[in-house]
Amino acid sequence: MQYAEITGWGKYTPPSVLTNDQLATFIDTSDEWISSRTGIKERRISHINTAEMATLAAKQALARAGLLAEDIDMIVVATCSPDLLVPNTASKVQQLLGSNHAACYDLSAACSGFLYALQSATAQIRMGMANKALVIGAERMSWFMNWSKRDTAVLFGDGAGAVVLEASENKSGLLASKIGCDSSARDILKVSNFGTDMDRYVNPPGPLEIAFQGPDIFKRAVRGMGGATQAVLKAAKLSVDDVDVLVPHQANARIIETLQQHLKVADDKVMVNIDKYGNTSAATIPIALCEAVEQGLIEPGSNIMSAAFGAGLTWAAAYIKWGERTTPLSDYEQQEQDCDKNAMELTRIAREHCLAASASES
Ligand code: ACO
Fold this sequence. Notes:
CATH superfamily: Thiolase/Chalcone synthase
Radius of gyration: 20 Å
Bound molecules: acetyl coenzyme *A
Helix content: 25-40%
Number of strands: 13
Strand content: 15-25%
CATH architecture: 3-Layer(aba) Sandwich
CATH class: Alpha Beta
């Protein structure tokens, strides 16, 4: 039996930090409200595009796996903020990395995208259709932000995470998973005014921005992730006591706490980094996985449960068995992290535009 072992892990978190206090200088909010309702203290704003972030995370994952870019035969990028609609983001990653033998595709399942992509790539490796794959979650969510809307502007951030999967005899990698979608709620979370749904000429599109009904999503997220996690545990013949680490999607610390209580998982087994990055959509889980390894929370052979929900409303849960190695074979210095602008400077033009549009509406 062939498995798809995770042999490399990497992340790119942009250097420019936007704090809650900085947000409160231009919208009616406070660090107290954001921290207590969401657990977020700050988020990153990227000066580079989604494919470049994905590439930097991938370079680190490749180095840690001890592989060269040309060794890779498949690149999957989970994203809802691609550089372009056509061609896909994965092909740009191939170009930047020089992974000339890799098949490339993007996967659109919003915040559940990374777990959908992990299932897809794992299945292909286990079927013998691929040998070495890069699975990446990368998002430039700041691009969607309407900086005049406090209900959404405080929640999101930019970043990328990546893993390398390799065909292996070791019983490790994604061993059980369940993905699904509750389309009855697909309208409660969306980016409107984009796509062939609109008539470009008769009714020119309004502003492109993310909008959602937070409290409704909150309830559905807890239900969806909790149910999927229980189903995966059952399929894997595991009990909650067998779980060493829980790596949930990072959309709201209160959602994570509710899931944790529902599953009865101890605090010291839960990976939480939403305080530093906010919701980076498809990138939250690979970044959190990477940091869980870096912090020693994930150890050789760890049983990891992960769960996510996102627009669609897509949902996913996964049981991942870590392989034998948590020490990198080599490493990659993120020298391209340098950025000469801070987050307030990076968002200045967008903020001025959004605040002026909001003022003219009222
Ligand atoms: N600062 C200050 N006040 C605010 C802010 C803010 N940033 N945002 C909203 N408020 C106000 C509202 O206007 C409202 O005021 P009112 O009572 O006077 O009307 C009050 O705070 C409460 O608003 P709620 O929406 O009820 O706040 P809630 O406690 O539900 O928290 C939140 C909102 C954080 C969005 C929560 O519902 C949530 O996390 N939902 C699910 C997560 C989610 O939707 N994530 C994004 C989806 S993307 C994805 O992950 C797929």
